[in-house]
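Researcher: Quick test of sequence recovery. Tokens follow.
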């Protein structure tokens, strides 16, 4: 199982999980890991367990997330070029 997978469907009648706007969405699947059991609530396992999650997010919410990500990570030195291959500006 990949950590993240993104699927862009051609459908335009899906509902965004954040703003509940109807339109095209990106379907993002990811998983988290911990020792809690998927099958029994409160049971602690000896091995790490994968817990799958998914979110449907529209283009407007993705732009909002992207701008917040860029703002938050800029102070940590994680400044990425906007597109792959774009040269980083010299200061």
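Model:
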């Amino acid at each position: 199982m990949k950590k993240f997978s993104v699927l862009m469907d051609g459908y335009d009648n899906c509902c965004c999980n954040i703003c509940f706007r109807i339109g095209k969405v990106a379907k993002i699947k990811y998983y988290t890991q911990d020792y809690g059991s998927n099958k029994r609530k409160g049971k602690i396992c000896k091995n790490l367990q994968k817990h799958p999650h998914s979110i449907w997010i529209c283009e407007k919410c993705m732009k909002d997330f992207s701008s917040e990500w860029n703002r938050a990570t800029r102070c940590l030195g994680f400044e990425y070029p906007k597109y792959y291959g774009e040269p980083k500006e010299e200061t």
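The CA atoms of residues 76 and 86 lie 20 Å apart.
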